[in-house]
């Protein structure tokens, strides 16, 4: 029996609190990108974003004016397209390296300069995940689903390359991302994890 990492992440994060209940406009974003985003990615971000987890990891939402996932994806593609990150040639990218539908699509980032990208294999439709720590032109591929990647990140494994793990024992710490310049962020904790 295979492990359901989406359910494991949802159990670890617990009930949605403080974050406004927003209907995610995934169809609109996917039409703009020209690809269908992974179901587990849409489920987790649709449920919790926009939010910061454990003081580092940002999850953005496709339907908010601030912290807008689609706008952030576009800005990140533009920034990385102008950079001199050539390590990806060894990973088999032959067309444009960044941007949908055939290049790397930004999925999330941290306040430590780390980014997680996804790319869709044309022939199989399977998603591949690649992380970059921002300081080096090195990318690491993770052969797993988004929810497994997130689960492993949250338990402190090295998910942005060797030595990148950040383990925080106890419940996940949430911080809301203000929807206006006058709104304050709010912090709370998820359920006990036994860690």
TrEMBL record:
<protein>
    <recommendedName>
        <fullName>Knr4/Smi1-like domain-containing protein</fullName>
    </recommendedName>
</protein>
<feature type="domain" description="Knr4/Smi1-like">
    <location>
        <begin position="20"/>
        <end position="152"/>
    </location>
</feature>
<dbReference type="InterPro" id="IPR018958">
    <property type="entry name" value="Knr4/Smi1-like_dom"/>
</dbReference>
<dbReference type="Pfam" id="PF09346">
    <property type="entry name" value="SMI1_KNR4"/>
</dbReference>
<dbReference type="InterPro" id="IPR037883">
    <property type="entry name" value="Knr4/Smi1-like_sf"/>
</dbReference>
């Amino acid at each position: 029996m295979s492990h359901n990492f989406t359910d494991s992440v949802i159990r670890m994060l617990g009930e949605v609190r403080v974050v406004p209940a927003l209907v995610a406009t995934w169809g609109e974003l996917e039409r703009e990108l020209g690809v269908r985003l992974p179901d587990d990615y849409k489920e987790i971000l649709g449920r919790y974003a926009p939010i910061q987890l454990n003081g580092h990891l940002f999850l953005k939402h496709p339907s908010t004016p601030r912290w807008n996932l689609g706008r952030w994806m576009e800005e990140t593609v533009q920034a990385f397209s102008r950079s001199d990150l050539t390590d990806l040639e060894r990973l088999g990218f032959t067309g444009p390296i960044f941007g949908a539908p055939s290049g790397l699509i930004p999925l999330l980032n941290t306040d430590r300069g780390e980014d997680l990208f996804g790319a869709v294999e044309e022939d199989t439709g399977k998603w591949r995940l690649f992380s970059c720590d921002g300081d080096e032109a090195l990318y690491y591929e993770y052969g797993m689903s988004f929810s497994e990647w997130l689960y492993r990140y949250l338990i402190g494994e090295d998910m942005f390359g060797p030595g990148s793990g950040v383990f925080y024992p106890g419940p996940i710490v949430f911080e809301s991302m203000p929807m206006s310049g006058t709104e304050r962020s709010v912090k709370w904790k998820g359920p006990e994890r036994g860690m």
